[in-house]
Design a protein that fits this description.
The complex is a heterodimer of chains A (76) and B (277).
Chain A: H1 2-27, H2 39-42, E1 47-51, E2 54-58, E3 63-65, E4 71-72
Antiparallel strand pairs in A: 1-2
Chain B: E1 8-14, E2 17-23, H1 28-45, H2 53-58, E3 65-66, H3 69-84, H4 94-99, H5 124-127, E4 128-131, E5 134-137, H6 149-161, E6 165-169, E7 172-176, E8 185-189, E9 192-196, E10 199-205, E11 210-211, E12 214-215, E13 218-219, E14 224-225, E15 230-237, H7 240-253, H8 258-265, E16 268-273
Helix pairs in contact in B: 1-6, 6-7, 7-8
The chains are: A alpha+beta (76), B alpha+beta (277).
Chain lengths: 76, 277
């Protein structure tokens, strides 16, 4: 009798945990506040501007400035 | 923000292009030694001199050839670039370069074109093998390090010079350290100043080294100059080598795929060409 109760309790616990996990995961597909999102996901948050006829996108790890540059990247 | 310290700078021409070094806490003599290092390595890696290490390797006809640590390092970085870009950045490009009329330095003008001989490029690891102090290139193939060496050299030069330096080798650069104001080195990218701190930046373009319908950026899928709709891409990445690889790969991918590719591999990017939003 005790064994049967334990088996039933285990089954109920397993099904309950599965259902709760499924509900939680489907309602939390992506946490927008997560600090370590890959760059590809956060690209939309980067600032994009048009300059010199092209399009410049600056991600969150690089800071733009109005200082005069000491040097530039360029085609050679 | 702390007061700006005095920047020591040194400018020179090497590999047919302008190079600059900026540093805090270094002497002019140390920056001059940096120039000498660039010249020594460039002499080994050039394909335009018959007696360079790279030319001897290309002429090795499949035999193992002894190589210096500098050539070994740059060849290994070429193999890494191939892997990183899924084959888009392929240093086995020399036969195509010769076929499109880029057999010698641009200062000497274009050479004869032989487009009938152009083929898609072979997979680099199939034609280039590198061991410690040795390398071999398959007969009929040839390596040109022009597409990967400058960013790699900028990285190596910064490692040599110290913790607060910018090395710009023909537009492919590496910035290390906090810079003069403690918030990075101000570097121009796509017409905007970005503060780079332990970053690399590079530009790939089809607007330079151009003659007639030809330019120097080969699409490995055809063996011919790339026509993707993008004309110039600048990238900020973790170091100069990665920036150079990502910029080239993005340009070869074209305007539809380049934004997503750059978002995954770069920290800032500038795209210019047709159909760029």
């Amino acid at each position: 009798m005790r064994t049967l109760v334990l088996k039933a309790a285990t089954t109920v616990l397993t099904l309950g945990a599965t259902a709760a996990s499924a509900l939680f995961v489907t309602s939390h597909l992506k946490n927008p506040a997560a600090p370590l999102q890959p760059p590809v996901l956060s690209a939309g948050a980067g600032s994009t501007a048009s300059s010199l006829g092209g399009s410049l996108t600056v991600g969150p790890s690089v800071q733009a400035s109005n200082q005069e540059p000491i040097t530039s990247t360029y085609a050679s | 923000m702390r007061p700006e310290a005095r920047i020591e700078s040194h400018h020179f021409v090497a590999m047919g292009t302008n190079c600059s070094v900026f540093a805090l806490g270094l002497t002019p003599r140390q920056l001059l030694e940096g120039e000498f290092w660039v010249r020594r390595v460039a002499d080994r890696l050039t394909r335009f001199a018959e007696n360079s290490e790279l030319s001897r390797l290309n002429a090795g006809a499949g035999e193992w050839v002894e190589i210096s640590p500098e050539l070994e390092g740059s060849l290994r970085c070429a193999l890494r670039a191939f892997a990183m870009s899924s084959g888009l950045v392929n240093a086995a490009v020399l036969p195509s370069m010769v076929a499109i009329g880029y057999a010698h330095s641009r200062a000497d003008g274009p050479s004869v074109t032989t487009l009938d001989s152009v083929r898609p490029l072979p997979r680099l690891p199939k034609v280039l093998q590198v061991r410690s102090g040795l390398a071999r290139v398959e007969p009929g193939c040839g390596i040109d390090l022009g597409g990967v060496a400058k960013g790699w050299m900028a990285d190596r030069l910064c490692e040599t010079l110290g913790p607060n330096v910018v090395a710009n080798i023909g537009g492919d650069l590496r910035a290390v350290g906090p810079g003069p104001g403690g918030v990075g080195w101000p570097v121009g990218v796509g017409g905007t100043t970005l503060m780079l701190r332990n970053h690399g930046a590079a530009t790939s373009s089809v607007r330079r080294r151009k003659w007639g319908d030809m330019h120097h950026l080969i699409d490995p899928r055809t063996g011919l100059p790339a026509k993707t709709g993008l004309e110039e891409v600048s990238v900020v990445a973790a170091n100069g080598f990665e920036a150079e690889v990502v910029a080239k790969a993005a340009l070869l991918l074209g305007p539809d795929l380049a934004p997503a590719y750059c978002a995954a591999h770069a920290q800032a990017w500038w795209l210019d060409g047709k159909n760029v939003d």
